[in-house]
Amino acid sequence: MTTPYTLPPATVQDYARQGAVVLRGVLTPDEVATLARGIEHNLAHLSPLALVASQPDDPGKFVEDFCTWQHNPDYAAVMQHSALPRVAAALMQSDTVRIYHDHLLVKEPGTKQATPWHQDQPYYNVAGRQNVSFWIPVDPVPLESTLRFVAGSHAGTWYMPRTFRDQQAKWFPEGTLADLPQIDAQPDQFEQLAWALQPGDAVAFHMLTLHASSGVGPASRRRVFSARYLGDDARHAVRNWRTSPPFAGLADHLPDGAVMEDALFPLLTIK
Fold first, then answer.
1. How far apart are CA 24 and CA 61, in angstroms?
2. Domain assignments of the chain as residue spans, ordered by start
3. Is the domain 9-234 a CATH 2.60.120.620 member?
């Protein structure tokens, strides 16, 4: 019998302070296998929201897809019945846990496309501080290819969201949010966090924590599933533009400032 995952109390404090933590062995080997099967099914049946986020001349390929968990039993099993909802409640310090969405991120061997520094929440249609994203690889991820974070960057500043490949402001109007600091040009000015990961590990991070990653080597495939959850204070933030991911028609029946009560975002039982 598998021993239930135990979240160290210090990890909750680190999440509140740093905005990102590593969770060693948060998923069981069976859950990793379930997730890997779900990823391969997803890759074979991409949704209309899927995109190739790498350049056409990239020797690899960076594939993303969104919001497929309700049509993928393997994703649904992990998002609802693993340790993730319980850990999410603890990290968010929330009495309730609600699924927000899932996100597939696969960098095939040799992919050079980097993921630039960004926050997630400015792309979304949600307000509130109680949230968490789990970045869960089903392949080993060496330090040079892992997700990197700026510690404490979730503290409050919202930075301008831009398209990854051409840096266009397609969401908030230009000039309405702060521009990103030059993190890579001033590495000594920012405390960075990064962890090499094995299947079963995950990193958990706040949706305002700045993060980035590099490409992958010619012998490395990096299949990642990201599960995102909301807590007590999450509210619908209606935008005048297409969010990423989009939730078409949601604003027609869920007003701005409303609790995220919708079949798309079910409340979970915390075990």
1. 28
2. 9-234
3. yes
